[in-house]
Amino acid sequence: xxxxxxxxxxxxxxxxxxxxxxxxxxxxxxxxxxxxxxxxxxxxxxxxxxxxxxxxxxxxxxxxxxxxxxxxxxxxxxxxxxxxxxxxxxxxxxxxxxxxxxxxxxxxxxxxxxxxxxxxxxxxxxxxxxxxxxxxxxxxxxxxxxxxxxxxxxxxxxxxxxxxxxxxxxxxxxxxxxxxxxxxxxxxxxxxxxxxxxxxxxxxxxxxxxxxxxxxxxxxxxxxxxxxxxxxxxxxxxxxxxxxxxxxxxxxxxxxxxxxxxxxxxxxxxxx
Length: 272
Description:
Distance between the termini: 41 Å
Largest sheet: 8 strands, antiparallel
Structural class: mainly beta
Helix content: under 10%
Shape: globular
Number of strands: 15
Number of helices: 3
Order of helices and strands: EEEEEHEEEEEEHEEEEH
Strand content: 25-35%
């Protein structure tokens, strides 16, 4: 199966003198310099092979229950359907132990009503699977942050990003094998100096230090904070700089704590 990079919308924002103005064609959604994942290491990670007209796209997502997947709006807003890869490490191995694939139609895709491709705001969507899946050691949901109003900014905390996106800027397609990075959450004020006017409080950023970042094809995938053995999903991969994923720029994610009410309203999934 040929995989397509999950890139849907680009946007440009001017700098305040700290960084150069980035042309329209150079802003894009974008794991580089990561490690290869082991079976069962990221059981909440899903892959999304999207049907868009006569072509397709590849994105990531996060399993949040036995029926629901969370991803980015820019991955799904033009999709006519999607094959969801569960329990996968090698997405090109049709006979991989523990891997499951489930097709979900367009009617089961719910894009956030406030999604704006011009500003990349509210870049979040949900996909309902046609049947409830059974959990096992390779397929487990991530946990949503508790809906108690006391949300951490996670600034400075170490977090995990994973996906099948391009493993380097030189790569021409997504990685067949799941990769991951462990990186710190960047201060919001610092991230805003890179993407002036683009980053809002409903977004969360990771440092791109040492060339470790998300890349093309990681869109919609999970950003997870691990606490006491619990995998809290705190972000969905949204965008980065098209000058290159290894250039040291921050990766930007949709901040999940800003959408807990909407997620509960649509899916019924909540962590009280």
